[in-house]
Amino acid sequence: MGVFRAMIARTFSAATSRSLRVCVVGSGPAGFYTAEKMLKAHEEAEVDIIDRLPTPFGLVRSGVAPDHPETKIVINQFSRVAHNERCSFFGNVSLGSSVSLSELRQIYHVVVLAYGAESDRVLGIPGEDLSGVHSAREFVWWYNGHPDLSQLAPDLKNTDTAIVLGQGNVALDVARILLRPPAELATTDIASHALAALKESSIRKVYLVGRRGPVQAACTAKELREILAIKDLYVNIKQDDLQITSADEEEMKNSRIRRRVYDLLSKASSSGQTHPSSGQPELHFTFFRKPDKFLESSDKSGHVAGVKFEKTTLKGSGNQIAAGTGQYEDLKCGLVLKSIGYKSIPVDGLPFDHSKGVVPNIRGRVVSSSDVGQPMDGLYVCGWLKRGPTGIIATNLYDAEETVASISEDIKKKDPASEFASGREGLLQLLENRKIEVVTLSDWEKIDSDEKRLGSLIGKPREKLTNWKDLLAK
What residues contact 128, with CB distance under 8 A and at least 6 apart? Predict the structure, then answer.
């Protein structure tokens, strides 16, 4: 790593006729789709993708569940983009600390921010900082070997019950990982530290808790079918919770997904056994409950022992909302995973709508504020940072198309390439001056090769390197 001078010389000689300098911040789906669209739309474009991690592919690597290998196939497409002669990947480059946004805007004609959402929404209720309370994102990063969370070490041994707050696909992912037989995970790319912990886990009971009812459950039918198919799983859903109103019927009439999810839950409720057998894994779908406070253990100071919930009822029509009833109940547990939404992090010099957790933009053009709407020259946004943490991987494809279309429209009005921008060589020179240890595409390929080789020795597709030191040693 750090062979800067040769790279700068090679870059400069290769870029003389490629005058549109573009930087994409973030190497997840939004970043790679943006790079792909830019390279295709503008033959004169030279695109650099930077990421704070040494590894590319964002949530495809650190967010997609290890037992969903088919979802990760998109990495092959992104790798082809990275190998385009007009594209470069530079890892271990952090926006804000390695290089500022204002510096990137000076170095490049176009900057597209696609760094996603690396933080979490908070509930803001008492006890949220107790030990044993984690965000689902932290837990997902832990079992996927993200270097920031490889030392998380959630306590899976001293409790038999976990509560997952939320009923979206991420909530189902973490519940499935907790309940699925570890032997079935042993042939995936799950991080070894997580597999070892799951093999020793005492958790046999998982509650998936939602504020609203089964009609409003935010998961997809595919994810729900998968968790319901876990071997020897006892599923509990209260029949009273499956009672639907005319407003629920209207919601299902307008959404086939909601109808399918409700039908699957109804079928699971009626076709299962009435009581779990000894040692059987249990999944409890709990509806119409919102967390009021986390309860501290009387035996283990500072550790969670349960959650106090307020019962809810639905109000309104169309998109019904949950309203508290003033009735409460406690659920005991030793582990809580909050799957209530990801949150993007702002950087200096970037307008940010804190209420929505997004960068204010018009079709991908960053604007100075949500109200005024004055576009900021050469600055764009894509992915979760643009629209919020919603959608599937493919949603970012359409998102990137819209942002690149805006870039193309702006270029027609005023060709930024008529002004000098140092681009890649300017960035590499700046990083060299700051002694930033850049991870190039060839460095990543060494990591990739190493992980696959280590995985082949133990029957896994790859054995992920999960700490910064090992990743930067390549």
Answer: 122, 294
